[in-house]
Amino acid sequence: MKKGNPRVIHTLCSSYLNEVVPVDAGTSQIKETRLAFMSGAIAAYGTILHHMDDSNSEDVIMKKLEFLNEEFEAFKVEMGVYKEDDNA
Fold it and tell me: Do residues 60 and 38 share a domain?
């Protein structure tokens, strides 16, 4: 990584670890949690790039991004992060 680049995903992952991993967690749990988080971030990034190719119009790209957002929001509800009414 070039010096001076913001580490946005790294920062989000660190915040996530602080929220969900117990303070006394072992190195394996921390490593596996980081791996799961970063794997999800990489998959989401790749999916977004795939949908933003030059053959799609801006309207098509926006619609695909809306579908991705709907899927993410449904997952949050499923996991109990918040209830559907809270997202209105």
Answer: no
- Contact between 45 and 37 under an 8 Å Cβ cutoff? The reply is no
| pTM of the predicted model over 0.70 | no
The residue ranking higher by pLDDT, 60 or 33, is: 33
Residues 6+ apart with CB under 8 A from 40: none
| Structure-block tokens of residue 41 | 């971030």
CA 40 to chain centre: 6
DSSP letter at 15 equals: H
What is the CB neighbour count within 10 angstroms for residue 79?
8
Range of the domain at 11: 1-51
Pair (10, 40) in one structural domain: yes
